[in-house]
Amino acid sequence: MTMADIEKCLTKESSTLPLHDDSSVTLSVTAVDEPRSHPPSVADSSASCPDGGARAWLTVLGAFLALFCTFGQLNSFGSFQTWYSEHQLNGLPASTISWIGSLQLWVFFFCGGFVGRLFDAYGPRPIMIVGTLILVFGTMMTSISSQYYEYILAQGIVVGLGIGTVFYPSLSAISTHFHNYRSTALGIAMAGSGVGGVTWPIMYQVLFSRLGFAWTVRITGFITLALCGVAIATVTSNISTPTQSQPWLNTRMFRDLPYILVIIGSILICLGLFIPFFYIVDYSTAHGIHPQTAFYVLSVMNAGGILGRLAPPVLSDSLGRYNIIVPCAFLTGLSMLVFWPFATSLTAIMLFAAVYGFFSGAFNALIIPCVAQISELREIGTRVGVLYSIISFPALCGGPAAGAILKSEGGSYLGMILLGGTSVVAGSLFLLWARCMLSRRTTEPKELSRLLHVV
Q1: Do residues 352 and 73 lie in contact, with contact meaning Cβ atoms separated by under 8 Å?
Q2: Which locations, inside or outside the cell, does it occupy (predicted)?
Q3: Distance (Å, rounded) from C-alpha 385 to C-alpha 216?
Q4: Which tens digits make up the pLDDT trace of 94-131?
Q5: What's the CATH class of domain 46-454?
Q6: Which of 19, 32, 186, 410 is the most buried (most CB within 10 A)?
Q7: Where are the domains of the chain?
C-alpha cells in the first residue's frame, strides 16, 4: 500500500468515527483551543444551524422573556426568604424556610432530564404551554398560602416544576439554531434571568409594603402569563423531525469521559453556587444594613449576572467555551473565600454582590453551550436535561446545609462561606480536567496522521 493510500484510508475512517467512543480516536468535539474549527463528525450539526435569521433571533427573544419569568424569579427567592422570616413564617429558623427555595431549585433541576427528552421528541411549544400553565397556577396558589406546608407544595414543588418546563425547551431550542455563535445567543437569552433577578426583588420590595404579599404574588403571576405567552409564540426548533423513536435515556452518554467530568464539576459547583443568592439579604441585615436597603443587594448581585451572562459567552465563541468557563467558575469560588468574609460595610457587600453575580452568571450561561459542544444535535436537550437532573441534588442540599451551619455556629457566616467557596473551587478543577481531555482529543488525530506520513 502506498503512502497516498494510507492517507486516504485515514481520512475516510476519521470521518466515520463514533461521536462518543472513548476506545478510539474521536473528533466529536469542537477544538478547545480553536473553537471555530469544525471536525468532520460535527459537520452535519454546524451545517444545519443557520447561525442567524428571523426565526433564530425570535427564539432568542422568546427565551429571554421565558428566563426573565423563570430563572429570574428563582434567583429572587432571597426576597421571599427574608419576608417569610419576618412575617408568615417568623417562628421558623432560616434553615427551615430555605427548604422552600431549595426544593424549588431541586424540582427545577431534577425535571430537566424528562423535559429535555420531551423536547427532543416533541419540540418546545407544547412543553412550554403546559409549563406556563403550571407556573402560573403555582404562583396563584402561593398567593393564598399561609402555612409552611402550603408554601412547600405551591412555591417549592409546583412553581419549580413550571420553571423547569419553560426553561429547558427555550434554551435547548436556541442550540438548534446556532453553532458558531451558540454561546453568544444563549448568553443573550440567559441575560433575561439576570434582568429578572434585578427587577423582581425591587418589585417585591415596593409592592409587598404597598399591596401586601398576596396581591404582589398575583401580579407576578399575571406578568408571567403575558410574557410566557409571547415566548410560546416566538420560540421554535430548527430540528424538522423529532426523535420520538430513540430510547428515553441513552446510556452511551455516561461512557463519554468529558461529559462525566462536566457533571462532577457541576455537582460540586452547584452545592455552593446558590448559597449567596439565598443568604445575601440576611447577611446584609446581620451586618447592620437596613432591611429595605438589603433587598437591593440581591438586585445588585443579579445585575452583575447580566453582564456575566453576556460578556464571557461572547468571548467564548472566539477563545473557546471551556477556556472561559473554567476561570469564571474558579473565580466564583475564590470570590466567596477571599472577598465575602471581609465584606461588612454596605459598599463592600454591594461590590462583592456585583463581582459574585458576574462570575456565577458566566457559569450559568456557559454550562449549556459547553454540554452542547460535546453532544450530537439531536441529543442536546436530553444531555442538558440529564446534567440538570443530576445536579438537582446538591442544589437541594446547599441552602439547608448552609442554614444548618449558620445555626450551629451561632449566627456566624464563616462556615457557610467556606462550604460554598471550597465546593465551587473544587468543581472548577473538574471542568479544567474536562477541558484538558478535549484538548487531547483534538490533537491525537493530527499526531496519528503525522506518524503515518513518516512511516
Answers
A1: no
A2: Membrane
A3: 32
A4: 778 888 988 898 898 888 878 877 887 788 899 999 99
A5: mainly alpha
A6: 186
A7: 46-454
pLDDT band at 132 (very low <50, low <70, confident <90, very high): very high
In angstroms and rounded to an integer, the radius of gyration of the C-alpha atoms of the chain is 22
Q: Which of 216, 180, 214 is nearest to 35 (CA)?
A: 180
How many residues are there in the chain? 455
Query: Residue 394's closest CA among 44, 102, 36?
Result: 102
Amino acid symbol at 204? Y
Q: Give the range among 15-29, 267-281, 441-455 with minimum mean pLDDT.
A: 15-29
What is the C-alpha separation between 376 and 189, in angstroms, rounded? Answer: 22
Task: Give residue 89's identity as a one-letter amino acid code.
Answer: L
How many CB atoms within 10 Å of residue 105?
26
Q: How far apart, in whole angstroms, are the C-alpha atoms of residue 300 and residue 282?
A: 15
CB-CB neighbours of 181 under 10 Å: 19
Residue whose C-alpha is closest to residue 185's, from 167, 172, 198: 172
φ/ψ bin of 288: left (φ > 0), alpha (ψ from -120 to 50), beta (otherwise): left
Chain centre distance of CA 86: 30
Contact 10, 23 (CB under 8 A): no
Position 40 pLDDT exceeds 50? no
